[in-house]
Amino acid sequence: MFTHDFVKRIRYGETDQMGYLYYGNYALLYEIGRSEAIRSEGITYREMEEKMGIMMPVISVESRFLLPVKYDELITIRTKLEDLPGKLIHFYHEIINEAGQLTHKGEVKLFFVDMKTNRRVSVPDIILSKFKPYFDS
Amino acid sequence: MFTHDFVKRIRYGETDQMGYLYYGNYALLYEIGRSEAIRSEGITYREMEEKMGIMMPVISVESRFLLPVKYDELITIRTKLEDLPGKLIHFYHEIINEAGQLTHKGEVKLFFVDMKTNRRVSVPDIILSKFKPYFDS
Amino acid sequence: MFTHDFVKRIRYGETDQMGYLYYGNYALLYEIGRSEAIRSEGITYREMEEKMGIMMPVISVESRFLLPVKYDELITIRTKLEDLPGKLIHFYHEIINEAGQLTHKGEVKLFFVDMKTNRRVSVPDIILSKFKPYFDS
Amino acid sequence: MFTHDFVKRIRYGETDQMGYLYYGNYALLYEIGRSEAIRSEGITYREMEEKMGIMMPVISVESRFLLPVKYDELITIRTKLEDLPGKLIHFYHEIINEAGQLTHKGEVKLFFVDMKTNRRVSVPDIILSKFKPYFDS
User: Fold this and answer.
1) CB spacing of B72 vs C11 below 8 angstroms
2) How confident is the model at residue A137 (pLDDT cuts 50, 70, 90)?
């Protein structure tokens, strides 16, 4: 399994009048989590688009809200891959607050599109090769 | 079953560099859908908070992305209740584009909290009474 | 002078924990105002980009916050042109609340870029011809 | 003069279909800049609200867009105070890209409100005392 942690502070503009992180802003946390996870392996999503001509549209999101997250909290976005990517890449995210509590779980599935042909393709080899070591037994 | 339609235009600031509505902005569409659905029955979420002291935190979201939605498209947010609310209220949303295509499906579950006691409660009677006629056989 | 009004409701996700419309969300109101002002004259910004190959980057914004705007308020975005566009187009915006109070003033200046050459150009004739009648004495 | 730098990466959800950081998202950068500037002096805006009962509404914003900022760029938010705060606090922000270019200038003026009385007050002494050393001749 692959795991990556990234720390982010919650901003005023990300809260709502309930005083909590607005439920619509978790998707940005997932985006931060997956892009930083890929970056930690030496690839960036920007290069994927610009150099490999591959984009990764989101196909589904599932979110579970366990505890509210408040203004100015320093949260940890934990991003996991439980399986090697293939036709899809499936990210698991956990949002952990300063007290170490699990506040939120999110799952995001994305696929790969060749921007020249506009067709679905499998995970590029360079991505696969980066994550393979985490799954070899 | 209860169904309500609300029409909204997609703004530049809601797109991303892929040229599509950013996947994180669908949660605002769900919010618009459910608040306008309630308003169509003569209640507003603002009154629920201010007058009844009830707030409705989100407990889970499930989203399926079928087709991209583009800048300036006039989309229909279709909001459905398939069951009477009880301990939870479960909204089903469909995003339909100008060509009449179903582009997106979302499900949002919320619960009810008494803001004075900060405890979970069941759906307020006034909400229940509004939606009951749609489910009587 | 050209004036155009557009009505919009403030959503939960647009508020912050102060309970007001977040100050960063006024820029979206300006965008709505100017795009609907142009649309009211039979042109859309989408067509400008797609058919005329003209984009309009923002060069400056000035905002003055007079009164807070609250959740669920139905605001009027008043958009004015006080001069004919030339090298720049200069929009004046007023945000008026349900009680008829002026809550906010914004000014946005944009320029015109030919997307093929990536160079600044003057206002396209088709835009100029639409707005000219409002300024003829 | 007081100066503080904070580094932030631009996310996909913060771009628009022009491929640039959306003009409405700079306000969040200013918020990050001023809150981190205050934090660097040992105070947080969260404490100001929660412990001192002081909130800081924005009264005006002025923004100048010099160069586009692109997806995934690591920008520096430079935040300056050129004068001691009094009835107002006046932040100057510069957004500097990875190449060291000044891409954007923003000015934000805020005032101080006593949350109990809902009245304007002058800058709290604790804030003033933190910034005073930067302005003593």
Assistant:
1) no
2) low
**How many domains are there within chain D?**
1
CATH of residue C78? 3.10.129.10
Substitution target from C30, C46, C58, C95 for chain D, most D beta carbons within 10 A: C58
Kindly determine whether residue C44 and residue B72, on different chains, have CB atoms separated by under 8 Å: yes
B33-67 tens-digit pLDDT: 999 999 999 999 999 999 999 999 999 999 999 99
pTM over 0.80? The answer is yes
A51 to A44, A116, A128, A131, B112: CA distances (angstroms): 10, 12, 17, 19, 49
Q: Which two tokens stand for residue C92?
A: 């004046």
Predicted confidence (pLDDT) at residue C137 exceeds the cutoff of 90: no
pLDDT of amino acid C60: 98
Residue with tokens 């769900």: B30
Q: Which residues of A touch B55 (CB under 8 A)?
A: 18
Q: Domain limits at B11?
A: 2-134
D130 touches D42 (CB < 8 A) = yes
* Interface touch B17/D16, C-beta < 8 Å: yes
